[in-house]
Amino acid sequence: MFLINMLCRNLSKHQFGAFSLFSLYNFVYNDSRPLRGRTGDRAGVRIACLFLALLQPFLASPAGAQERLRMSTTTSTENSGLLGVLLPPFEKSCGCKVDVIAVGTGKALKLGEAGDVDVVFVHARELEDRFVAAGFGVDRRDVMYNDFVLLGPRDDPAGVKGGNSAAKAFRAIASKEAPFVSRGDESGTHRKEREIWKAAGIAPKGKWYLEAGQGMGEVIQMATQRKAYTLSDRGTYIAYRGKTDLAVLHEGDPSLRNPYGVIAVNPKRHPAAKYDLAREFIDFVTGKEGQRIIAEFRIGGEPLFFPCAQERK
Questions:
Q1: What are the φ and ψ backbone dihedral angles of 162, each rounded to 5 degrees?
Q2: To 5 degrees, how large is the angle CA 213–CA 148–CA 100?
Q3: Domain span holding position 209
Q4: pTM here?
Q5: What gap in Å lies between CA 173 and CA 160, rounded to an integer?
């Protein structure tokens, strides 16, 4: 009986709708009037108290509580404003709330590896394929794409405008030691930048080269202040164009294509991951409504992303 008493006391704070274990405890021990005129004693009620206490871990959330989907994503989906139009219709249709963690793609995938999120929405295909191959993710789907652009001061001190390759433009920047601000955060943009430096045969270093360790929006602002060059995804640049005087000085190189994918965290690796809800999100962003929202999302009449869920499986 001592164990029953302790369970009732220690779990009295837990709510069961409008009735709580605290109320039950008071009902049993502090008010005998409800029991008068009934057969038996309080033992049956005490047993009921224990039964409810033991059931507590298995009971559903209180009525009205929203289910939450945890998503890690690249900063460009948030900085561009896309999530602001893409998530509300999904949340309304599934009656849930999406908790967004916007970081570089490398960090977003690390959160998935650790089981700290349920779904990842990123843009570094090589890293995404490794994530799935290692058993951390399942059901990867293409969602959309845009491209990377090289931004810089309008007077273009390194003379990169008009070049025929991104690698050639980067070599010109390094040869002049013109200021360059790198994401420096293992993001998809940072990985693409390092690919271009490698293609150019250059390991950038020196006072002219700054690794910021920041998101794309912050890096554009830093480059603006320093009159520096930087590599950006086109979507974030369009969203920040009114806040910078940097211009697009190189674009159109096929190597600058920037695809985005969505991946559910593998429930076999992380049983607590909300796989069913993650699948609902994947089906939404790759389905007709999600792809329409992406296609129609524009700033100043200019599209930021192009849907491609049906282009490749």
A1: 90, 0
A2: 55
A3: 147-256
A4: 0.75
A5: 7
